Amino acid sequence: MKCVFVTVGTTSFDDLIARVSAHDTLQIFKSLGYNRLVLQIGRGKLVPEPFSTESFALDVYRYKDSLKEDLQKADLVISHAGAGSCLETLEKRKPLVVVVNEKLMNNHQLELAKQLHKDGHLFYCTCSTLPGLLQSMDLSTLKCFPPGQPEKFSAFLDKVVGLQ
Q1: Rounded to two decimals, what is the model's pTM?
Q2: Lowest-confidence pick of 7-11, 59-63, 125-129, 137-141
Q3: What are the percentages of helix, strand and coil residues in the chain, rounded to 5?
Q4: CATH of residue 110
Q5: Max CA-CA distance within the chain?
Q6: Count of structural domains, the chain
Q7: pLDDT score of 164 more than 60
Q8: How confident is the model at residue 106 (pLDDT cuts 50, 70, 90)?
Q9: What span, in angstroms and rounded, lies between the C-alpha atoms of 109 and 105?
Q10: How far, in Å, CA of 48 to CA of 46, rounded?
Q11: Gap between the Cα atoms of 135 and 67, Å rounded
């Protein structure tokens, strides 16, 4: 079983949920060998219809106490650019695609994603460029995020968000 896990944290990011559950994107996941898509949709208004066929399954939920289990099972994580979700995924050493929400003002999230991309830890895109990225990205080029250094990460976050 190869699984894609999509998380929006506690926010709502309907554009992302719409994009990953769209027919064309599901075809891309299938062509890449994935056969399960788990969507954590937070406060979103859009609730895709779960389904299960012989070749593919889609699961949907709003919140769980912990995303640990879903992250552990995932072969690819697609996340909103929240620092918590990014860090948790990178610490589990899962390939990560961060989708930046262009509708958010003061987009610190973009700075964070750009920097982690520059350092080789993740791929990032917007909703509209996600299908192309999925087809072109090479997960083997990603570098592991140095584990157990949350203080470095928070210092880095402070810098990005301009607290220093």
Answers
A1: 0.91
A2: 7-11
A3: 40, 20, 45
A4: 3.40.50.2000
A5: 53
A6: 1
A7: no
A8: low
A9: 10
A10: 6
A11: 26
